[in-house]
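User: Predict the structure for this protein chain, please.
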Amino acid sequence: MNSAMTDNIKIRVNNLHFCYRNHQVLNDVSMQCQENTITALTGPSGIGKSTFLMTLNRLWENEPQARMSGRIEIRLGGVMQDIHTGRLPLTELRKKVAMVFQTPNPLPMSIRKNMLFPLKISGESNRALMEGKMTQALQAANLWNEVKDRLDNDARKLSGGQQQRLCIARALVLEPEVLLLDEPTSSLDRTSTAVVEELLTGLKQNLTILVVSHYMEQVARISDRTISFNEDGTIA
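Assistant: Here is the predicted structure, written as structure tokens:
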């Protein structure tokens, strides 16, 4: 591999094994993701695609009977780092490697409070700065024009597609470098799906994106690379 390609690597996974209880979920997975690309993760349901996403921001550590071995490195702030060393705090990792789930999950509060909540829990207190980051994230998620006049309305009153874009915006407000999405359009209609797909294609100019999808037509439309997971926990 030439040096230019090596410098462009955002995520490097080597010999990843993952078990839950006595079940081997991931089996010797090694792969790389280039910066500013969309990588689609495909394969049958229940074989480890979502689990793989959770290894990239250590969300799996919330499961007491889970075990992982192998090495995961992500280039953050221009430096390739092993995410499981003590040098990278978990809170910092999850700011930089954000995750959006299959079902939109707006908090039971206003659109504004949904957007400001991640900033508050990260320790930000400058109201003007927070409002500016909120606006930028909503604009990046192509949602600002639709909600700017009702920021204090209940976020759960938004349509399904708008809720999903709100969840993406909420992830973007902390200015991540990697965005993980677990079947982000599975609960959306065709029109809302098209909007989210267009959004993701635009976001990769500034982000590295991994997306789990069962829809091969969608994979063909948005992904730069496809990684297929097998039933034995390996990848093709």
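Residues 3-228 form a domain with the Rossmann fold fold (CATH 3.40.50.300).
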